[in-house]
Amino acid sequence: MVKMEIKGLLMDPVSNMPVVILRDAGDGIFLPIWVGIFEANAIAIAMERISTPRPMTHDLIRNVLAGLDAQVHKVVVTELKEDTFYAVIWMESEGRIISVDSRPSDALALALRVDCPIFVEDEVLKTSKKAASSAETSSEEMRKFLENLGDEDLGRWKM
């Protein structure tokens, strides 16, 4: 597994869909994950530390977990199958380790709220057509690369 962080959130100019950019702190590997508008909003709110008048869905989940004395240890993007990413939320409650299947967008939104690490399985990085290394690519080249992705390059990146 590779520890990653959310580097940013941008709009894909071709599909007009939001893209979460994950980045490895060590090697500078980037992994774009296309998400829905509402999921991107939930991630953006957490990234910007915007407080809402009432709890959003991921805030509710965080509050329920805290009420149950459960701790989220990490979230992991585990698979890329038929152009769909999969994730697992790893938590502990009453001494038991629990894994919960999740969409990556929900796992990422929760990870930001509970301040837990984000990981991506090595195999996901190997099989993703869109993973890139900053060692091979400058930030300007990466920006141009992401902006110039076409529909045929993207496939159907579903959450």
Structure explained in plain terms:
The chain is about 35% helix and about 35% strand. The protein has six helices and eight strands, in the order E-E-E-H-H-E-E-E-H-E-H-E-H-H. It has helices at about 35-45, 55-65, 105-115, 120-125, 140-145, 150-155; strands at about 1-10, 20-25, 30-35, 70-80, 85-95, 95-100, 120, 130-135. An eight-stranded mixed sheet has the order 6-5-4-7-1-2-3-8. A hairpin with a 2-residue loop joins strand 4 (about 70-80) and strand 5. Helix 1 packs parallel to helix 3 (about 105-115). The longest helix has 11 residues, at about 35-45. The model is unreliable at about 150-159 (pLDDT under 50).
Proportion of strand residues: 35-45%
Number of strands: 8
Structural class call reads alpha+beta
Cα gyration radius (Å): 16 Å
In one word, what is the shape? globular
Largest sheet: 8 strands, mixed
Instruction: For the record, give the distance between the C-alpha atoms at the N and C termini, rounded to a whole number.
Output: 20 Å
Count of domains? 1
CATH architecture: Roll
Q: Write down the CATH topology.
A: Bifunctional nuclease domain
**What is the tally of helical segments?**
6
CATH classification class: Alpha Beta
CATH superfamily: Bifunctional nuclease domain
Would you list the SSEs in sequence order as H and E?
Answer: EEEHHEEEHEHEHH
- Overall mean pLDDT score? 85
Strand order of the largest sheet: 6-5-4-7-1-2-3-8
Q: What proportion of the residues is helical, as a percent range? A: 25-40%
Uncertain stretches = 151-159
